[in-house]
Fold these 4 entries.
Entry 1:
Amino acid sequence: MVFARLLILFIFLNTSFSSTKAEPSEMYIQQNAMKVIGSQIPAPILSLLQPYKVIAVGEHHGTNEIPELVANMALALAKTDQVVLALEIEQANQKGLNKYMETGDESLLEYLSHFAREYQDGRSSIAMVELLKKVRLEKNISILAFDPDFSLDSQNRETKMAEKLLAEIQKKPNHRFLILSGNIHSSTKIGNFFDPNYRPMAFELFSMQNSPLEESELISIITRYDSATIWACINDNAEDCGEMKLKIEPSNYSTSVDFEKYFLKEPQMSEEGYNATFFIREVNPSKPYSN
């Protein structure tokens, strides 16, 4: 499982994000980009998200900005709905997370295996703890750890993620689910750059047999950047994890408007398998919480 994650990350870190991929026209972005000022989610974006039961946000792990964005999105959604905020944390950590949400005792997080592990790949950052702190007092938000504790391979991990989420969706049919995961998991399209038959978690959510979720009930949002430095790992040695600069080429997303942040509903599913984009001009690394 670690090898599969490292392979994906290695390819992303060593491949420029090219503007030659199919993307919306400059005119479309100029006419439809929904500007975001500061950290609050504007009402028009919330209105656009209202029809969706499941909102899957894909990120590069290890930034300050994306966990903050998702925390603010959860808080905004919680004004009208009960929200399950699903995080890419191993399920064995659920009881400890529940206890933290009840008590606010931050020392509980320090001993959770997710945050205390030696191998820090960006999912257990200071920013992720700040996310938990930010949403803890909102009674309409609960936290779900949906990453399996064990999987046979990367595809098995995707399927187990989806199975856990679908089980919770069935238990809580009146809740909205906001999922924060790596961008591979949040794609709604079968196949990707390393396996044409790969079934990402978000795709599995509506395609698995007996799934209670319709494809139209899920929106997948990819986070895009003009400049990005993240905290990540490039091999299986914990000491080699650290700050890494992503190679990103200019694209219509970065040049069509001068907004620092904006939300864009894609005119059609993107080539990578996403329905929408949240653009942030620059994202910066968040160090591991345990350091």
Note: The domain at 2-283 is CATH 3.40.50.11550 (Rossmann fold).
Entry 2:
Amino acid sequence: MQYYPASIRNLIKNFAKLPGIGEKTAERLTLHVLESPKKEAEDLSKSIIEVKEKVRCCIRCFGLSDADICGICSNTGRDKTLLCVVEQPGDMVAIEKSGAFQGVYHILHGFLSPMDGIGPDNIKIKELFSRVEKKEVIEIILATSTSMEGDATASYIAEKLTQYPIKVTRIASGVPIGGDLKYVDQVTLKRAMENRHAILL
């Protein structure tokens, strides 16, 4: 690596910090940036800074947004009585791409994992119950992952929701055990959403 100037080595090192990017890919990306027109490099750097400066969590669903309220929550065509609970913003995007859901979302930003010290206060569960207490939601769809932690999170939320006059369902099987929603194909996600079922407590 010493055969590159310090500035190139530094960019390679920073690219390599990105998930899924190894040293060889980081090197290719760096050389691509170097060979591209200056404006392309400027646009890339501006877009990275813009993301860091503008993107925040929607104050309703905690999805990613450039404004206080995201495009989905502010869309009057969405069914506000239907609330889908997911772990991460990427899970919401995966469901949106499937085209199977026209309600709104609640992003937990994690899952319950007592072994890792992650309890109800560490994710957006209190905020979920606050939304339920406004009595606008008729059905909650629990679309957490099918991992042990995802199932535990869904069970915990379902049990707490028994005190409310609300329908609680879980996305149907079809999503593989231990699967991450971001990597599930759209047809499988569509079927899982359409064939959701009640949770047996």
Note: DSSP finds seven helices and seven strands in the chain.
Entry 3:
Amino acid sequence: MIKGIKICGVSDPKTLTYIVDHPYPPQFVGFIVNWKASSRYVELDRLKKLLNIDKKKSKYVAVIVKNDKSTLEKIKDLPFDYYQMYDCSPEEIFKIKKKYNKKIIAALTVENKKDVRKYKDYENISEIILFDSKGYEKSMSFDHNLLDEVEDHIKKMIAGNIKIEDVVDFKNKPYILDVSGNLESSKGVKDINKIDKFLNTVHDINS
């Protein structure tokens, strides 16, 4: 059974409203708050307006690359439920979690088994471990079979160029699926029809 969904890289109010109002909304909605190389990056003033939209049944996730103290201070009063942290040491994440009182998704970029095994350094300070590709803002994949050795008690989120037609392959895997680029009509622009198909597909598989 698929354990949940995260739609990442949302950057406009129309898309966000559609997502949170959907009959089968995702558990998580992600916003790129400091990675300017991404076409999905949302600058602060626009982010504040966007987050005024009622999240309803979903949780809002700030996607943050590195221990960016300036950004962390700027977003500290915004209604984020989780901070998704890339390129941070366990020590840095522990301090961020304690200071800002947020739940943590520790993001690990994966190419091989050695990369996967780093989760053990983060499991005690993270609510969720995200296993992603090395692509960051690029839609790249990695071998999800590498995660078979991750212990069952770990709450696992996976990303890395997951397509709608791939979803059925995860029906017997205990993963939260994190999808972004494959729900777009063009770079950085979400496609409502693809989002609807994705949410309905996961619901049908789990029903």
Note: Strands lie at 4-7, 28-32, 59-65, 82-86, 103-109, 128-132, 156-158, 175-179, 184-186, 189-190.
Entry 4:
Amino acid sequence: MRDMDWPSFLLAGFAVLFIGVAKAGFGGGLGMLVTPLCVLAFGPKTAIGILLPLLCAGDAFSLYHYWRKWRAENLKFLLPGVVVGVVIGVQLVGKFSPRQLNIAIGLIAVLFVVFQFVKERIFRAEGVFAPNHSVGGPCGVGIGITSTFAHGAGPVAAMFLMPQRMPKEIFMGTSILLFAFVNWIKLPFFCLDRTLVDWPLFAPQALITSATLLVSAKFFPLVPLGVWLGVWLNRRFSERIFVRVIYACLLVTGLQLIFNFDLAAPFR
């Protein structure tokens, strides 16, 4: 794991704070900014391992605020596919170089921004969607794969949940409940590898190690602080302008991961 300088530490700190803010329902796609920022701070494989325990903590805190404000029946349509997608995802992560993972995570970030601009047009023409296994299975696989690669399955989940036309609070509660299950499903696959468990479904190398857990523990206090901040912001501020700023930041971060610009060149 690379040594942390102050810029990397601050970048990661803001990213972890954003976990809580996003889990509390403020900022739309703010949660999608978390992994790209941490990748810039830590590198792709290390960032993915550091973030999962923090995401699990964020789920626990945010479930308290949205308790029983969800449509739990969505889980039965999505979770079987999620398990398959996670298994596929952990196999693929070990086959990509750090540069290739950066590109994959950057592409997910950029495509998310594009999705935000077209989703209303896509779903406006559709009637109210009744969830089912034929759609939920493939969506679950997509959620599992993209969540394993970048903790970035929001767009795939939204494609299944948004057409159901839920009230905002129910949509948020359902999303939080879904990703709480997704993150706990990922946890054993991230902690164990084939050196510990001789089973081909596990990755060749664990993504969560004692070193990544130590870093996660250092940033943990920012998660409940972020959840509290998100709840407070939700009650007092409009998020429209804030969301646009977040999408711009996410787009720039995604492009940086894809093209690896030399940001220091103008200062030389």
Note: The radius of gyration is 18 Å.
